[in-house]
Amino acid sequence: MTSQETTFQLLQEMRGHEEDVRGVSPCGEDRIATSSRDKTIKVWKKREEGYQIECTMVGHTDFVGPLAFIPPRISEYYAGGALVSGSRDKSLIVWDLNTMGILETLEGHKEQVSCIAISSSGTVVSGSLDGTLRIWDRSTCLTVLEGHAGPVLSAAFLPSGDLVSGSGDKTIKVWRDGRCMATLAGHTDTVRSICIFGNIGFLTASHDCTLRLWSFTGKEMLVMTGHTGLVYSLATLPGLDLVASGSEDNTVKIWNSKGKCIQTITHPSCVWDLGFLHDGNIVSACGDGVTRIWTQDASQLDADLVAAYNTALETQNKQVHGESGKVPMKDVSALSSPGSKDGQTIVVNEGGSGIAYSWDSVQMRWDKIGEVVRGPDDNMDVSAKMLDGVQYDYVFDVDIADGAPVRKLPYNIGQNPHTVAENWLAREGLPMSYREQVVEFILQNTTNTPQAPALHNPDPLTGNSAYIPQDVGAPKASHVPSKIDKLELNFAPMREFLHFDKMNHDGAAKKLHEIFGSSSNSTLDKEIIEDVLSLCADIGSSRPLRPEEIKQLQVAIECLDVQEMFPVLDMLRVAILNAQVAEHFASRSSLLSKVLKSVEDGASLPILLTVFRLVCNAFKFDSLRVWVKEEKATIINLAVQNLSLENKSYRLALATILLNFSTMAQQEDTSCGIECISLLIESLKSFDERDVDATFRLLVAVGTLACNKEDAAMCKALDVAEACCSAVALCGKPTKLVQALKDVETLLQ
User: Edge-to-edge strand order for the sheet containing 251-256?
Assistant: First the structure.
């Protein structure tokens, strides 16, 4: 077979998954199954026009990874054939591909299921991040194989019936009758994939970017190099002396039996998994959410599809990497121009560092994502967090004591931080008295966006950088009874006030220009006001406002009409996060009350939203919290009047106010709780499935209130738990909402 004959080109793109495709499995001659981070499995049926979705199977509660097909007639239990899936929810599900229903649910692993192997007789074996392999007889675990010093990420059966497994401990183990017969070393990093290569031996792929060929007796025969990123997957087809490998470097490489790479197929994103179809075509699962089929048969090709794909790759390469192959950094002036579409990302050169920004088309502003780190080849790259060969959303360096080694703490978004803390302390041999400190550390340093760079100021509840906890002084004495500390709670009680620290500089500057163009008020100093705007927009600025600048803010609020006041209010909202500014306006709180009153009489949505965010920020310092308490009734009435507004940003601000009031009720003013409960209930009933973050804040607010005996009694009397359950169900039961609801149910039981 010549290299020309081995050229694969794009035959079909299969779109349907909402997130990256993590697993793929050919199922007979006319079906393909795919799994995704979107928690679903899709079965695709071959028709005249290509593979089309036949069924979407839902059963797992977290993202689905490995898939394995049990052919018909090899298993007495699954005579008609079956599909086995593994998930981060720690379970496996056996699916009937005739009815598309669940046949068995296999539970027992303590961590994510990371690989599945099927024996020639249909026996199911699973590997997990818990470091074990399990051999199953339907839903019963017959044997647990232990021996690897790291997570088990790959497994396959040899023709002899022996089982081979690969691990994050960099080794390959050979198992027979439940015993480890041999341990093979050679790879210098995680062994991620294993497959049989005809009668020659078996292949392994590793995070060390290599493939290795081993004889069935365990002798290393060949090392294949060429990938520039972690190698995630391998596939071969009996009778076809070709090997396909998928990698984090966004390619599939085709290798001949001599270990030579004869073709590289570029993808838009990393290739998680791949397989050969019965006709010799290749199917690949990609991080862009698309499954693709590649063929050597030129007669089947759609020239337009191939040309469009190649053009799209070229365009993406220029947009993402620039002509030099490195991510281009734009001048900071690029932030002065609006983005072309929602979610557009640019990297800006700020003092020599690449800072990523994303365009928010609703707020009409560039949101700072964080600093883009440099990879080993000095190209800009958002690096994956790896530990012992496993990718995590976070891997923290924890310094326990001076002179002691730094410990590594891994964490995935959606995990219970309390459970993670306990398991980690046990593994590290550390006292459980550290538990709450570790939990607090996790909550304060995690975000909701797994692939994003670390944020400068992540919100402990959602990770959004627009909301940061107060960091001034120690927490105040709480009204939380001591028995609460003994309960297994995820988020309640909240002990910090949340606020909004970012602003749209360009939008505010434009409005200011309009004001100065139409106003003849000589007391307003255009230059000073613009300086204040620049300082407020620069979150990282260390220079405080000067007295004359604070005075100008005051003058602007005094002399401007409420409809003109928007940019000044937005500046004030950020400025009061400074203690000096907060003190100044606390001593002139009548001005803030005037603003509340003017909004109460009617105002546009932007004004109302800004005022609510201003109120949130006023919780930060003692001086302005006095004003919040005084105006509590006005604030709550204003919220009730505008409860019907269906703006997502407004609802998030409202939920944050209620959460801050709940926190205040526990720390300072117990009357806040009872006054907020009715509004909490109405908000839970009014918000919809788009308001996941806002609903989450409401649930944490209820949980925080329920830590107080009197407030808990009122919550029970008003059936708050029922409203919480309905809200979580409406939002589709995302993990963080379920965990917050569990707090409520625990406290109100």
Answer: 231-237, 240-247, 251-256, 261-266
Which string of DSSP letters, residue by residue, matches 676-709?
HHHHHHHHHHH--TT-HHHHHHHHHHHHHHTTSH
Question: Tens digits of per-residue pLDDT, 472-515?
Answer: 333 333 333 445 555 678 888 887 788 887 766 565 566 666 66
DSSP string, 572-585: HHHHTTSHHHHHHH
Select from 686, 696, 749 the least CA-distant residue to 721.
749
Q: Rounded CA gap, 485 and 90, in Å? A: 29
- C-alpha 395: how far from chain center: 14
d(CA 370, CA 716): 43
> What's the gap between Cα 235 and its chain centre?
29
DSSP SS3 for 645: coil
Dihedral (Cα; 737, 740, 744, 749), 10-degree rounding: 90
Q: How far apart are CA 8 and CA 297, in angstroms?
A: 8
Does pLDDT of 469 surpass 50? no
What is the C-alpha to C-alpha distance for residues 392 and 394, in angstroms, rounded to an integer? Answer: 5
- pTM confidence score: 0.49
Residue-wise pLDDT tens digits, 558-615: 776 666 666 777 878 888 887 888 888 888 888 888 888 877 767 778 888 888 998 9
In this structure, are residues 174 and 160 in contact, taking their beta carbons and an 8 Å threshold?
no
User: Distance between CA 713 and CA 708 in Å, rounded?
Assistant: 9
Q: What is the token pair recorded at 165? A: 């497994």
Within 10 A of 450 (CB to CB), how many other CB atoms are there?
Answer: 17
Rounded to 10 deg, the angle between the 547-559 and 526-537 helix axes is 110
Cβ atoms of 97 and 149 closer than 8 Å: no
Amino acid at position 279, single letter: D
The proportion of the chain whose per-residue pLDDT surpasses 90, expressed as a percent, equals: 37
Q: Report yes or no: 201 and 174 within 8 Å, Cβ to Cβ.
A: no
Distances (CA, A) of 447 to 465, 547, 723: 9, 37, 27
- Cβ atoms of 90 and 53 within 8 Å: the answer is no
Instruction: Say what the alpha-carbon torsion angle 728, 731, 734, 740 is, to the nearest 10 degrees.
Output: -30
Provide mean pLDDT across the span 122-150.
95
Q: How many helices (H) and strands (E) does the chain have?
A: 18, 37
Q: Quickly tell me which residue has 């976070």 as its tokens.
A: 394
350 neighbors 372 (Cβ within 8 angstroms): no
For residues 357 and 367, give the distance between their C-alpha atoms in angstroms, rounded to a whole number. Answer: 5
Reduce the DSSP state of residue 314 to 3 states and report it.
helix
